[in-house]
Amino acid sequence: MSHAASSSTESPLQGVILMGSAMFILPIMDAIARHMAVSEGMAPAQVTFYRFLFQLVAIIPFFLIPGTRLTLRSERPWLNIFRGVLHGGATLCFFTAVKYMPFADVFAIYFVEPFILTGLSAVFLKEQVGWRRWTAIGIGFIGALIVIQPSFEKFGLISLLPLACAALFAFYMFLNRAAGVKDAPVTMQTMAAIGGMAIMAVALGTAGGAGLPDFAPSLPKSLSGLLLLLLLGAISGYGHILVVRAFRLAPMSLLAPLQYFEIIAASLLGYFLFGEFPSGSKWLGIGIIVGSGLFIIWREQVRASKAAKASASLH
């Protein structure tokens, strides 16, 4: 899972390379989470806790590099921690979903997130969203329903977890868009890791204590399991730093379509690791979601171009 905020210093090629790399790397994190939940028997909530714990472990060395100007001091510490809380909830929904559902299905449904984010921006930031984009949002949700429908018959309410993940992550991204970027990517990821750990510790202590199996506290059963969790945290931390960095190097209109490479990577991982491949109807739903998302990105680019021309004409 991934997404990020706006750019400042332009270096489009570097941004594309970083973004493309992240999109093919990040699904490996989710494949590890599924392996830990299914093969190692670890509760998704516990895997989520370790994801943020080892993300923190992987990031801290950046602050110890001699001569670095990085600092844990944040201009918006509580906002960044709250972002981590939202990210923790989204990750828990995603990791629980991949435990039960086909890998690519979860990714496809999750990609309604840009539609939710567009709606939030229209309602709360008063960004102008015309009928074309509202239509694309509606069509995108129809695509999601095509993917969800057979999953709902088989998995019940579990099939709605990717939607919950998308909603939480859209709020996470909305905070980025609403408040702007004030801190270094490494600092942001560190604070988010603290927030994610905190909410998952609460979840493990309450829901786990109540006997819910997907929240049961546990330790890795083997050295290989521990190493996989370390790798999961490293991919999470470094992958999202790549995404944040990419969006500071290249325009959102250039990078946003690359997010859909995650579906391709997830489909390949699902096939080679778990023997899963989407059916024809699910590919139809995935195509509708991706097409609608790309149309929204294009319309945002057109709107931004018109706004820039109007501003230039005033000067």
Task: Give a description of the structure.
The protein has helices spanning 12-38, 44-59, 61-64, 77-100, 103-110, 113-124, 131-155, 161-179, 185-206, 223-249, 252-255, 261-274, 280-314. By secondary structure, the protein is mainly α. It is globular, with a radius of gyration of 19 Å. Residues 4-8 have low confidence and may be disordered.
β-sheet strand percentage: under 5%
- State the separation between the terminal residues, measured CA to CA: 41 Å
Reading the helices and strands in chain order gives HHHHHHHHHHHHH
Quaternary status of these chains?
single chain
List keywords for this structure.
315 residues; mainly alpha
Secondary structure layout:
Layout: H1 12-38, H2 44-59, H3 61-64, H4 77-100, H5 103-110, H6 113-124, H7 131-155, H8 161-179, H9 185-206, H10 223-249, H11 252-255, H12 261-274, H13 280-314
Helix pairs in contact: 1-4, 1-10, 1-12, 2-4, 2-9, 2-10, 4-8, 4-9, 5-8, 5-12, 6-7, 6-8, 7-13, 9-10
